[in-house]
Amino acid sequence: MSSTWELQAQKARDILDDSIPKQWLLPAHQLPSPEEKNVEDFARKSGLLSEKELAITDLSATALVREMGAGRLKAEDVVVAFLKRSVLGHQLLNFATEFLADRAIARAKELDDYFERTGKLVGPLHGVPISVKEHIGIKGLTCNAGYVAWVNDIAEEDALLLQCLEKAGAVFHVRTNQPQSLMHLCCSNNLTGTTLNPYNRTLSPGGSSGGEGASTGFKCAPLGVGTDIGGSIRAPAAFCGSYGFRPTALRNPMTGAKAPEPGQEAIRGVIGPLASQSVEDLDLFQRAVIDQEPWDIETSLAPVPWKRVSPKKDITIGIMWDDGCVRPHPPVTRALKHTKAKLQAAGIKVVDWEPYKHDHGWDIISAMYFPDGTASQRTLITQTNEPTLPLTAWSFAYSSPTPLTIHESWSLNVQRDTYRDEYHALMKSRGVDFILCPAYVGVAAVLYESHYWNYTAIWNILDLPAAVFPSGLRVEKELDGLGGDGGFVPRSETEETEWKKYTGPERYEGAPVAVQLVGKHFRDEETLAAAGLVNDEGEGEGVQHE
Amino acid sequence: MSSTWELQAQKARDILDDSIPKQWLLPAHQLPSPEEKNVEDFARKSGLLSEKELAITDLSATALVREMGAGRLKAEDVVVAFLKRSVLGHQLLNFATEFLADRAIARAKELDDYFERTGKLVGPLHGVPISVKEHIGIKGLTCNAGYVAWVNDIAEEDALLLQCLEKAGAVFHVRTNQPQSLMHLCCSNNLTGTTLNPYNRTLSPGGSSGGEGASTGFKCAPLGVGTDIGGSIRAPAAFCGSYGFRPTALRNPMTGAKAPEPGQEAIRGVIGPLASQSVEDLDLFQRAVIDQEPWDIETSLAPVPWKRVSPKKDITIGIMWDDGCVRPHPPVTRALKHTKAKLQAAGIKVVDWEPYKHDHGWDIISAMYFPDGTASQRTLITQTNEPTLPLTAWSFAYSSPTPLTIHESWSLNVQRDTYRDEYHALMKSRGVDFILCPAYVGVAAVLYESHYWNYTAIWNILDLPAAVFPSGLRVEKELDGLGGDGGFVPRSETEETEWKKYTGPERYEGAPVAVQLVGKHFRDEETLAAAGLVNDEGEGEGVQHE
């Protein structure tokens, strides 16, 4: 029996292997040894990319479009540069599930022809290579969503969001990895294996959009598309030194994103961007999609146009140092202090944010993740008898053993709405516009150790827009020791588990430290503007962003 | 045992009786005999209201505010006029559950004081008396939602929508009746009995906002507040010659409207206005509420401002003559033809609208009404052993005998969204901006005969904004005979049942004939503007609106 699932899984690996542009593969002996943890500089070291190609892959989407619009870059050169970097990144990090080289290059040529003919760009994302998480369907290609059982499923249409991006000029060049079940903040499955973190290959790239974390973290794409129901965009962005945004639900179209619980809407997954270079690119992505009024096709979306807002300094940011449940690791706290100092120096009002019932929020959302007692997921796994991976089992354990009754699910909906209204009222009464907080309990998780989600999931249950971006800091041996915190007494078993993972900075060597900025419901534009401001204020003093 | 529920129910009647302003009660012998069906003119005939009071109750909310703003009317005089008319209406139609005379008059005096002091109105609804369906909570007052079991339940807060209306200047003067379970298009319960139709007291005022139908139909209030999950605003407006509007869901705040299934959100009930005089007043109501940005309190609402739009003649209206399931009665078809001719004469483009799978739409919505197999409702009924009324039992029969499984409920959600997207795409591909259609299979239902809901419920499952307004026609003996239709062969048992109810115009004598105009999702403002246009085009040729 076990050979059955393995044969099925092999199909996914065959698709991947067949799709790799072989001409750009580096011979195994030229690759860094597996013991080399940090590979962030290997694109330059490898010699695979020319200086021009390295320069291209250092550009943001915004800059790329500007250069193409000025006729200084061609879309074909751009996509080839990012494809080469993707092939290399895949050899180092195992982040891809399928390369789309031929069609991407053909598409780029079309765009170049169009520009040559008309002198115009086709749209705001003209020629921008974008990597796409595998479970977001592309017409005619398989879509397995991390399940062996779905390895033969072919998407009938491009996901609506991809249609919007493509109309705006985007070029999809690589599809990326995700964990079995899509329900953890790591990136491992029985199909194409485990994705690694470019800053430290003993660390996870995060999940579930872990392939996107690695893709944007290694600059295989200036923009990527992920999904997020508990942190699945933001954890990868945070772990990999990228930028990530979880929009308010019902803004970006979800049609064509495959998952085991279609019709589950108590807690909505969202689709959104990761970016390798800037908050500005997150806004560019959102603007390109929402300007197309996707609600005129996917009618359940809220018909709320994407506003143009400028960053304002006249705001109040509340800093949440701790969620009241699980204390962040020392480098995270240091990054918050660092950011606070920068904000204060820039004249931005900063206050402390006392968390409000985050344990209650977690109780609600964790009960909402598997309302059918994981039957949908287990059925898929049982179909092929693929092994249930440890973090899959761990997330399934949140589920009640039996399906929720209709009344239990209604009660959760009421609790959810009440909690949302209360939290929003609290932000108003405290005069806080944005909350700055950890993106995760630590800087990243060691592979297979992503357990505590609630620094991100809390904003899913509250349905607040949340951006993650680098603080500019890295884990530092000298600064991030346990020091006086060695005797910290945890408040719970969960906190103890998480705290014990931080034995010291060595375990997380090389990792960038992210922060998260959270705005009010549907204030997505203001949240990105403020995130850009916070991010910019962190610059200019020798702080590095990649 | 049976005495228990009767004792409980008596409390609701005591509340009502104690609240009636006795000074305005007409002695029984001055009331029309029960055999007198049509009482629409009785306000004048009764002698209870002065000429000035009669003139006041003939004004729209818009006109009333204008007059108060010009200092030509006082809020106190206005509310007293409507209170007197309400007391009379109640004696004729049994539409009230509680009068709020003292507080309404006190509030009106405050408004008059404010105006006298400042020369300003407090808001766009300054001094407008508004009747409110009973299950929309008012702080400190009982809220039974049509169930004897809830006769002692006291609302802790005003419903959020009422708070908005009150801030805008509204005066609540009477609470109104609803059916047991809130789930039928008639208006009868075991608490305060059955409400009648002012145009023909053998007819139903519609439901479930039947008290509001009678209130606005008899001009006891220029505006009323109802709720609608299958036609509960629109059927009463249609049956009673009033105006009614079902907004898109998630526009008006629902907090504080009491019903047995809190947290059920697969099919959302909405709260919205009825008006005695004009479409313009429906827009006034919506504007007054949404201008207050209720989404800043009830965060699940869509943050979509209320646009100011002008009626455009450059539109295409598709006329749906029949929903493909149940043929409308002859006067309804005549009203559509009449309206079509008016629109064409006014140069507005009119085409036929072929319905799209309305039976499928009904299958979805009827399965969504009672996802717990009516357990919530039956538990309430069993608590007191109040009798289950025939139309309650009839609507409960839509329910599956057992609760839906989680997977069944998800499947319905997917079907719903697919159907919505398909229907919207069809309107676009056919170039149709609005659909003009019957508001009900007939002009009204005979008491206890409201069975077929799908001329209204279809727009609930599609979540489209829909306005109901008088066609200007009435049932006519000469014009509405069965004629050549006597031999019509029904397509189904349901159609046969509905068709057989129309034995001829005599059965519906005196009833006004309404039509319904439906717009696209979230195009509430455009829908009301177009409804105003259609309604206006119907005027000017001797057509009467009341």
Automatic annotation (TrEMBL), chains A, B:
<dbReference type="GO" id="GO:0004040">
    <property type="term" value="F:amidase activity"/>
</dbReference>
<feature type="binding site">
    <location>
        <begin position="229"/>
        <end position="232"/>
    </location>
    <ligand>
        <name>substrate</name>
    </ligand>
</feature>
<feature type="active site" description="Charge relay system">
    <location>
        <position position="208"/>
    </location>
</feature>
<dbReference type="Pfam" id="PF01425">
    <property type="entry name" value="Amidase"/>
</dbReference>
<feature type="domain" description="Amidase">
    <location>
        <begin position="77"/>
        <end position="528"/>
    </location>
</feature>
<feature type="active site" description="Acyl-ester intermediate">
    <location>
        <position position="232"/>
    </location>
</feature>
<protein>
    <recommendedName>
        <fullName>amidase</fullName>
        <ecNumber>3.5.1.4</ecNumber>
    </recommendedName>
</protein>
<feature type="binding site">
    <location>
        <position position="182"/>
    </location>
    <ligand>
        <name>substrate</name>
    </ligand>
</feature>
<dbReference type="InterPro" id="IPR023631">
    <property type="entry name" value="Amidase_dom"/>
</dbReference>
<comment type="similarity">
    <text>Belongs to the amidase family.</text>
</comment>
<feature type="active site" description="Charge relay system">
    <location>
        <position position="133"/>
    </location>
</feature>
<feature type="binding site">
    <location>
        <position position="208"/>
    </location>
    <ligand>
        <name>substrate</name>
    </ligand>
</feature>
<keyword id="KW-0378">Hydrolase</keyword>
<dbReference type="InterPro" id="IPR036928">
    <property type="entry name" value="AS_sf"/>
</dbReference>
<dbReference type="InterPro" id="IPR020556">
    <property type="entry name" value="Amidase_CS"/>
</dbReference>
